[in-house]
Amino acid sequence: MKRVYFKIIFFLFSVSTCNAYSQVNCTVPLPPVFTLASVIPETEMTELNWTLSPSTDIAAYILYTYKDGDGMAFDTIWNPLATSYSFNSSATKYYSVSYVIAAYRSPVISGMPGCPSQLSNAINTIFTITDIDTCNQKIVVSWNSYPSTPKNVTGYSVLVSVNGSIFADAVTVNPGMNNFTLNDFTTDADYCFVVRANLEGGAFSTSNKACLLTKMQRPPQWINADYASVNTDNQISLSFNI
Q1: Residue 136: its pLDDT value, please?
Q2: 1.20.900.10, 3.40.50.1000, 3.30.365.10, 2.60.40.10: which CATH number matches 128-213?
Q3: 34 - beta bridge partners?
Q4: What does CATH list as the number for 34-124?
Q5: Rounded Cα gap, residues 112 and 239, in angstroms
Q6: Residue 144 contacts residue 96 (beta carbons within 8 Å)
């Protein structure tokens, strides 16, 4: 009698375990559409925007940096209705950073791993650099391209601030250009530049702030020539000190 009772208990336990493991832990959700990556130059914060995943039962969104086809998660937003996130990143002061986003669905079976979606489209920030040519009195502003998906880039605006003034548009160039030369500037002044990618629909993405001091190189006040001579090969030798 005891043996029959044990067999019944074992059978029920086996059926229960089999049913539990035959359940689908979770179905991989669809990824969100990544719509914007922008640097806020005044605060050096980075802002990311995306659309909600079309899948149901989303628990969170995972944020990744993205390089050479690989994503590295750096934060998880545990809000299924979140469509934006701002954070402080010093990296955008030194180079362009690419990001991707994934939707995350919690597991059905407790203790099992959840289901992240495939990675979204990648978007990089704009990185701006400046270079001054004091001999030719020009400042060259250069930047990397912003992706034209999911929104087309309609042009780039170069904004300038002099000695801490409010940034103002200096020029707008077509989306195929990645540099601008400023030929008219004040010497011994602090110039800062920001590049803005203008997107269809009125959206935009801004770059880091690139600054420089327009200190002109000054020629020496006098030059002392020691000697000048012509050798047998008709070459001139000149010696001087400053």
Answers
A1: 86
A2: 2.60.40.10
A3: 50
A4: 2.60.40.10
A5: 81
A6: yes
Domain boundaries of the chain, sorted by first residue? 34-124, 128-213
Look-up of token digits 């000190």? 241
The two domains 34-124 and 128-213 share their CATH topology (first three levels equal):
yes
* Mean pLDDT of each 10-residue bin along the chain, 242 residues long: 40 36 72 98 94 97 97 97 96 97 91 92 98 90 97 98 96 97 92 98 97 75 64 68 62
Q: How far apart are CA 122 and CA 180, in angstroms?
A: 26
Please indicate, yes or no, whether the overall pTM of this predicted structure exceeds 0.70.
yes
C-alpha 50/C-alpha 32 separation (Å) is: 6
Is residue 116 within 8 A of residue 102, CB to CB? The reply is yes
Q: What is the pLDDT of residue 218?
A: 58
Contacts 24+ apart (CB under 8 A), 56-59: 57/29, 57/105, 57/106, 58/29, 58/103, 58/104, 58/105, 59/104, 59/105, 59/106, 59/114
